[in-house]
């Protein structure tokens, strides 16, 4: 796990993969991120689409509940991670998240 300071100003991408954890397990996973101090550092959170959208509403509410104290911008159900269709993300690239338009835009080339 990167040091807390390395998360400063970053967008946190999370997803539940094909494992489809029970909502209680998802809450516990977020509690670990909270305890580590990740939510104190990140600028926003993008949540990947759950496989077959299983537990989508539960995951969405849990993420809202667990991050409410930080008032972070949250974008849900994005086609990243293990769910289909998939989108490749250029990790480490500059990006702009617009929650009102529900867009995530890379502001620099993917490849150099």
Estimate nothing, just give the exact number of structural domains: 1
Shape annotation:
globular
- Total helices: the number is 3
Tell me, rounded to a whole number, the average pLDDT.
87
Spatial order of the strands forming the largest sheet: 1-2-3
Percentage of residues in helical conformation: 25-40%
- The secondary-structure element order is EHHEHEEE
CATH superfamily: LD-carboxypeptidase A C-terminal domain-like
Describe this structure in words.
The structure is a single chain. By secondary structure, the protein is an alpha/beta fold. The chain has one domain (4-106): 3-Layer(bba) Sandwich (Glucose Oxidase, domain 1). The chain contains 3 helices and 5 strands; from the N terminus they run E-H-H-E-H-E-E-E. It has helices at residues 23-36, 38-41, 56-67, and strands at 11-14, 44-48, 74-78, 95-98, 103-106. Strands 1-2-3 form a 3-stranded parallel beta sheet, covered by helices on one side. Helix 3 (56-67) links the parallel strand 2 (44-48) and strand 3. Helix 1 (23-36) runs parallel beside helix 3. The chain starts with 10 loop residues before the first strand and ends in a 6-residue tail after the last strand. The model has no long low-confidence stretch (mean pLDDT 87).
């Amino acid at each position: 796990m990167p040091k807390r300071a390395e998360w400063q100003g970053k967008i946190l991408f999370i997803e539940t993969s094909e494992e489809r954890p029970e909502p209680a397990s998802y809450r516990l996973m977020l509690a670990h991120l909270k305890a580590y101090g990740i939510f104190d550092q990140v600028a926003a959170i993008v949540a990947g689409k759950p496989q077959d959208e299983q537990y989508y509403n539960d995951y969405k509410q849990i993420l809202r509940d667990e991050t409410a104290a930080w008032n972070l911008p949250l974008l849900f159900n994005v086609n990243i991670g293990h769910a289909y269709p998939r989108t490749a993300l250029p990790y480490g690239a500059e990006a702009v998240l617009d929650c009102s338009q529900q867009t995530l835009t890379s502001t620099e080339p993917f490849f150099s």
